[in-house]
Inverse folding.
């Protein structure tokens, strides 16, 4: 696609990203690849071995739009530091993030990992690979539109608070979904957000929102479209940009944001 790949990734990078790079059968092909792998028995109950098999497919078969091992390390370290009891991801794809992060949440003493995925076929892949990794007791996969799923889980009392939110679904939904979480009081002081792909393909509206001061958010709040979530402008955020790479070796980054308080 004409994008420069970091030389350090030569020989270990995923296959190049094609013009059509998902929902073309490769996700089910991945499932068959993993469950037909000669080392399948070694993968059972071993999250890292399952991640290694997913990476193997991405390196030798076809590109997969996973967070990959390089940026995932940043989030795993964040989980170890923050020790979330409940983590939610928006956009699960084939389960790479769910496996890597749920294992880290479990190791940090956490109890629940929610994976919200719009595509039912992808959700099935997540479920089967997370089960193979031995994470059935902590990972719950929810199929449907992210906003609808958040509202339903909140209404039913299944999800009351999010300690760590990972955003990796469609980019225009990042900001309204975060604002929805604010309005539902699913997030608040102490909550942390990790947003992927803030360079490739980029997400300027999200970066602008989480970097705004309370005054800037309050000024925008009164004139915001009431047909969409408007959020809670009183929440105080500290946000930082963490450089990384796509598994294909293309530069990207995460935005790590923490809610540090409420401005009355």
């Amino acid at each position: 696609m004409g994008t420069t790949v970091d030389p350090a990734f030569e020989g270990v990078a995923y296959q190049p990203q094609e013009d059509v790079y998902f929902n073309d059968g490769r996700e089910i092909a991945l499932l068959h690849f993993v469950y037909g792998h000669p080392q399948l028995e070694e993968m059972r109950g071993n999250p890292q071995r399952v991640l290694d098999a997913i990476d193997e497919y991405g390196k030798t078969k076809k590109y997969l739009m996973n967070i990959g091992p390089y940026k995932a390390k940043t989030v795993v370290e964040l989980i170890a530091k923050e020790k979330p009891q409940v983590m939610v991801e928006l956009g699960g794809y084939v389960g790479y993030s769910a496996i890597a992060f749920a294992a880290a949440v479990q190791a940090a003493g956490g109890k629940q990992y929610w994976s919200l995925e719009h595509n039912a076929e992808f959700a099935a892949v997540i479920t089967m690979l997370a089960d193979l990794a031995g994470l059935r007791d902590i990972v719950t996969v929810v199929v449907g539109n992210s906003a609808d799923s958040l509202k339903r889980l909140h209404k039913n009392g299944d999800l009351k608070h999010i300690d760590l939110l990972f955003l990796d679904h469609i980019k225009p939904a990042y900001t309204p979904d975060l604002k929805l979480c604010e309005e539902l009081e699913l997030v608040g002081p102490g909550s942390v957000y990790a947003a992927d792909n803030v360079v490739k393909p980029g997400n300027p509206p999200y970066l602008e929102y989480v970097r705004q001061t309370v005054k800037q958010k309050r000024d925008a709040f009164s004139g915001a479209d009431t047909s969409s979530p408007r959020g809670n402008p009183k929440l105080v955020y500290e946000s930082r940009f963490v450089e990384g790479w796509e598994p294909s070796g293309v530069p990207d980054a995460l935005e790590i944001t923490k809610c540090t308080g409420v401005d009355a």
In short: Strands lie at 86-90, 112-117, 139-143, 164-167, 192-195, 235-245, 251-262.
